């Protein structure tokens, strides 16, 4: 298992390009199960989670092909098994995304029940109840969700009790081939849901309302092949912007989308960053100033994303003043706080809020990553530390950040990967 060694105290400067979005690439890969024809997916990020999803398709008998431009072509006509085994689901909860496509296209699916994880219990009850409302028989036994339907699923009017991203995606994919109309109310409005919907529409689906809280899907008989380019990763974009603001740096990110980052960009302006935008680039300049602490609250899109909460906590830990950060999406997403306090941060947890009193600089220490975004926050903490920080268990980071140490090196950071 590798770890990252970071020598902090350097302001990030330079330009890098942003990869395709993990959280839209994963459902789009699952959507390839909805047609017999070939889907070509471009701008896939090179990440461990993507490899896991390709492996999952592989163990069902589908053999994705990587072409010379590193695009992936998936032809699911060779599928033989309709199950997602626990070995894969336990490494990647997003494996649940094959449930809707398998059930609606093949009338059967067995997906291991994802367990709890480092950020909370994360049930999938809303995925299950929505598919049941569409006529699926579902039992949960032996640790598996066993789903079947005689004939086709039926369209249904579904109200999601909570905003769930992968839940909305699962139901939307299932509804594409269902009989009649499905309406999803209180649907997730995340840009990744829109990206999946746009890909499904390119495959011949009849979907409207994506990006609002009511999505309407009219089932069609078949979907067909297409070529689709995955949107840029807004969380990767945000992570580098926060890292640059925390280190008082000046960076430009290319191949990204400023229009889906408004909540973050307005917080970064409050922090004191000068921000310039183009259609597909963002430039952030702190002019060497120390960031000001800001307060925020996570919530579903378009509010501040939970996936950037930990990184902002790292920024606040070296900002001038005190900021509070409230987490409303997941129940236990503060594991990084204890590690940051070991680095000299002054952070108090009070229920689902952390109060962060900024200090001049953190002090490097050996720390341990507990989940994907927590790992990113510990790297930012390392970048704003005096002396050396080592971040252990970085397999988490490889799940969701493409070439993170190379990109940070391009921005001038002193960071290297070593075997632990
Ligand atoms: C997705 C993202 C993840 C992000 C999260 C919230 C992917 C692959 N992952 O995860 O990066 O942090 O959205 O933006 O896109 N819930 C239930 N029952 C359900 C489903 C969800 O109670 O059936 C709860 C969850 O426990 C959580 C909240 O709803 O408290 C939101 O979770 P959800 O949006 O489903 O997260 P994911 O789709 O798993």
From TrEMBL:
Catalytic residue list: 117 (proton donor)
Family, as annotated: Belongs to the EPSP synthase family. MurA subfamily.
Record-linked SUPFAM superfamilies: EPT/RTPC-like
Catalytic activity, EC: 2.5.1.7
First-level EC class: transferase
GO terms, molecular function: UDP-N-acetylglucosamine 1-carboxyvinyltransferase activity
InterPro entries assigned: Enolpyruvate_Tfrase_dom, Enolpyruvate_Tfrase_sf, MurA_subfamily, RNA3'P_cycl/enolpyr_Trfase_a/b, UDP_GlcNAc_COvinyl_MurA
Keyword Cell division: yes
Binding site for phosphoenolpyruvate: 22-23
CDD domains linked: UdpNAET
Pfam family, one: EPSP_synthase
Domain Enolpyruvate transferase: 8-408
Residues modified as 2-(S-cysteinyl)pyruvic acid O-phosphothioketal: 117
Ligand binding (UDP-N-acetyl-alpha-D-glucosamine): 93, 307, 329
Protein known as: UDP-N-acetylglucosamine 1-carboxyvinyltransferase
Record bears the keyword Transferase: yes
GO cellular component terms, semicolon-separated: cytoplasm
NCBIfam families assigned to the protein according to its UniProt record, in alphabetical order: murA (TIGR01072), PRK09369.1 (NF006873)
Keywords annotated in UniProt: Cell cycle, Cell division, Cell shape, Cell wall biogenesis/degradation, Cytoplasm, Peptidoglycan synthesis, Pyruvate, Transferase
Compartments it resides in: Cytoplasm
GO biological process assignments: cell division; cell wall organization; peptidoglycan biosynthetic process; regulation of cell shape; UDP-N-acetylgalactosamine biosynthetic process
Record field: catalytic activity: phosphoenolpyruvate + UDP-N-acetyl-alpha-D-glucosamine = UDP-N-acetyl-3-O-(1-carboxyvinyl)-alpha-D-glucosamine + phosphate
Pathway: Cell wall biogenesis; peptidoglycan biosynthesis
Protein purpose: Cell wall formation. Adds enolpyruvyl to UDP-N-acetylglucosamine.
């Amino acid at each position: 298992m590798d770890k990252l060694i970071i020598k902090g105290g350097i302001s990030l400067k330079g330009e890098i390009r942003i990869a395709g979005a993990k959280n839209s690439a994963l459902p789009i890969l699952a959507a390839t199960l909805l047609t017999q024809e070939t889907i070509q997916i471009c701008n896939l990020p090179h990440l461990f989670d993507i490899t896991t999803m390709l492996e999952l398709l592989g163990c069902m008998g589908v053999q994705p092909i990587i072409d010379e431009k590193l695009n992936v072509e998936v032809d699911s006509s060779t599928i033989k098994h309709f199950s997602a085994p626990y070995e894969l689901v336990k490494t990647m909860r997003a494996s649940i995304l094959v449930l809707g496509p398998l059930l609606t296209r093949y009338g059967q699916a067995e997906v291991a029940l994802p367990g709890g994880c480092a950020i909370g219990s994360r049930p999938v009850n809303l995925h299950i109840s929505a598919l049941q409302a569409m006529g699926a028989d579902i039992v949960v036994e032996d640790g598996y969700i066993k789903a079947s339907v005689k004939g086709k699923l039926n369209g249904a009017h579904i109200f999601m009790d909570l905003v769930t991203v992968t839940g909305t995606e699962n139901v939307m994919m299932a509804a594409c081939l269902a009989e009649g109309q499905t309406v999803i109310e209180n649907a997730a409005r995340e840009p990744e849901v829109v990206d999946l919907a746009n890909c499904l529409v390119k495959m011949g689906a009849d979907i409207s309302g994506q990006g609002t809280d009511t999505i309407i899907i009219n089932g069609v008989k078949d979907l067909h092949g297409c070529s689709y380019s995955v949107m840029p990763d807004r969380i990767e974009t945000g992570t580098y912007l926060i890292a640059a603001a925390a280190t008082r740096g000046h960076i430009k990110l290319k191949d990204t989308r400023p229009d889906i980052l408004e909540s973050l960009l307005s917080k970064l302006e409050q922090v004191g960053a000068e921000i310039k935008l183009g259609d597909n680039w963002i430039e952030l300049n702190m002019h060497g100033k120390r960031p000001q602490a800001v307060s925020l609250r996570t919530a579903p899109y378009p509010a501040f994303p939970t996936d950037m909460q930990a990184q902002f906590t790292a920024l606040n830990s070296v900002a001038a003043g005190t900021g509070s950060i409230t987490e409303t999406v997941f129940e236990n997403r503060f594991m990084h706080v204890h590690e940051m306090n070991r680095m000299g941060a002054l952070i108090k947890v009070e229920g689902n809020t952390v109060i962060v009193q900024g200090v001049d600089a953190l002090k490097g220490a050996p720390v341990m990553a507990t989940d994907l975004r927590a790992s990113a926050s510990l790297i930012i903490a390392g970048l704003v530390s005096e002396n050396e920080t080592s971040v252990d268990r970085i397999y988490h980071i490889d799940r969701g950040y493409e070439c993170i140490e190379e990109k940070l090196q391009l921005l001038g950071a002193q960071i290297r990967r070593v075997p632990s």
